[in-house]
Amino acid sequence: MDDRKRLEGIVNELNMYQGQADILNQQIEAVKVNITDLLVAEETLETVKDKKGTETLVPIGAGSFIITEIKNTDEVIVGLGAGAAAKKKIGDAQESIRKQREDLETVMNKMTEELKKITEIIVRRTPEAEELIQKLEGTGKV
């Protein structure tokens, strides 16, 4: 195979890997946001547990809040996904949220490892492409 075709093949391969890396980066960021939300939920549940009668701020949108009193710290409504929710005892809710967070952290770690492998391939293949470009430039075939 001539150098020009090899270069085209490597460039196509590098573009494909870069596209995969970009998608993984976006997915990792989305998972990080979800993990942060779960951490906030965990911390909030721990803070309000056994604090019946405490005043708190409830967000109503547009950076606005209402002041309200917590009347029930025994049960919370927990999102189950797909728009579904269920009432759970606070301890069960904490366990459920902790498990969701741990599962997402496992997924994120796998995605990060995959991104690392893709990055290693890009780093390994790029010098070969650069070498071919220099060779082709030297012969005037680029």
Written description of the protein model:
- With 142 residues, this protein is of the alpha+beta class.
- It has a two-stranded antiparallel sheet with strand order 1-2. A two-stranded antiparallel sheet has the order 3-4.
- It has helices at 3-48, 90-139, and strands at 55-61, 64-69, 75-81, 84-89.
- The protein has a single domain, classed as Helix Hairpins (Orthogonal Bundle).
- Helix content is 68%, strand content 18%.
- The chain starts with a helix and ends with a helix.
Q: Which architecture name does CATH use?
A: Orthogonal Bundle
What count of helical segments does DSSP give? 2
In one word, what is the shape?
rod-shaped
> What is the CATH topology assignment?
Helix Hairpins
Show unreliable segments: none
Question: In a nutshell, what does this entry contain?
Answer:
Helix content is 68%, strand content 18%. With 142 residues, it is α+β, with helices and mostly antiparallel strands.
What does the secondary structure layout of this molecule look like, with pairings?
Layout: H1 3-48, E1 55-61, E2 64-69, E3 75-81, E4 84-89, H2 90-139
Antiparallel strand pairs: 1-2, 3-4
What would the keywords be for this entry?
two-stranded antiparallel ribbon; two-stranded antiparallel sheet; 68% helix; 18% strand; single chain; 142 residues; Helix Hairpins; alpha+beta
